[in-house]
Design brief:
By secondary structure, this protein is of the alpha+beta class. The chain is about 40% helix and about 20% strand. The strands form three sheets. A six-stranded antiparallel beta sheet has the order 3-4-5-8-9-10. It has a two-stranded antiparallel sheet with strand order 1-2. A two-stranded antiparallel ribbon has the order 6-7.
Length: about 260
């Protein structure tokens, strides 16, 4: 089959709507013969001003006479919607993240996510949520609105003593001595909330103004620490000047 210049103009008109719906892939699939046959012939009443006629000469008669023969083609194009990246769920390291910022008491929005790794071993996926998302670490640390840090544990077991040591090292690395000293008692209280964490556990640290930081493990509240200053110090463990993992910091900031 040979196409003249008029045919190519018709092809272009037929492909425009598909490029808008399906992206570049849609522009490609609409140029295949069955697609042209279906969309330039079967829905011609909706396209009368374009008078699509490309490829009619080789359309099987049963396509014109039997509406049920359209079903496989309709299912095919509905299936294309399932491969559109725009409708895929947000996911990182196999962990779905779409519900990570669903607020218990306040509305929060996804700021970023990343993987905490050590010696090429994935320890957990971290997600940062904020009432006012930002790529500026200083702005997030100074924010006084609702915020959440979530950890999806990937490693088989993290002992409680290692968790406590990690918090303490992170506070010491990112806080001046006087500020660390002022928070030390609350940090010890915070450390006592954590048991050994196992693969699949989910830890939320939610800050709500006038309430403080509430820790949830697998959606169960295990304790609360007062003061906005504590949550900002806690958040500095991930996005402060000396984070434990620069890659995780970049991910949490949406970079």
């Amino acid at each position: 089959m040979s196409w003249n210049r008029s045919d190519l103009r018709t092809l272009h008109r037929c492909s425009i709507p598909f490029s808008l719906v399906f992206g570049c892939f849609g522009s490609y699939i609409v140029t295949t013969a069955p697609v042209l046959d279906f969309f330039c012939l079967r829905v011609e009443p909706a396209w009368t001003k374009y008078s699509c006629s490309l490829g009619r000469s080789h359309i099987p008669n049963n396509w014109r006479e039997n509406p049920m023969s359209l079903a496989p083609r309709v299912l095919f194009f509905l299936g294309l919607l399932c491969i559109n990246p725009a409708i895929h769920a947000r996911e990182l390291a196999g962990v779905p993240l779409d519900d990570d910022c669903r607020g218990r008491q306040a509305r929060m929005y996804f700021n970023g996510a990343g993987v905490r790794s050590k010696f090429f071993i994935k320890i957990y996926v971290g997600t940062l949520c904020a009432s006012t998302p930002s790529r500026d670490a200083s702005a997030l640390l100074a924010d006084t609105g609702p915020r959440r840090m979530r950890m999806h544990i990937l490693y088989d077991k993290i002992p409680a003593q290692k968790i406590a040591a990690g918090w303490r090292d992170g506070f010491a690395a990112n806080l001046e001595h006087d500020r660390f000293a002022a928070l030390e008692q609350r940090l010890e209280q915070f450390n006592r909330m954590f048991p050994d964490l196992m693969e699949g556990d989910v830890v939320d640290m939610d800050y709500i103004p006038a309430q403080g930081t509430t820790v949830f493990i697998n959606d169960r509240p295990v304790g609360r620490i007062e003061g906005e200053d504590f949550f900002s110090a806690l958040l500095s463990v991930w996005i402060g000047q000396h984070p434990a993992d620069e890659g995780l910091k970049s991910g949490l900031l949406g970079e």
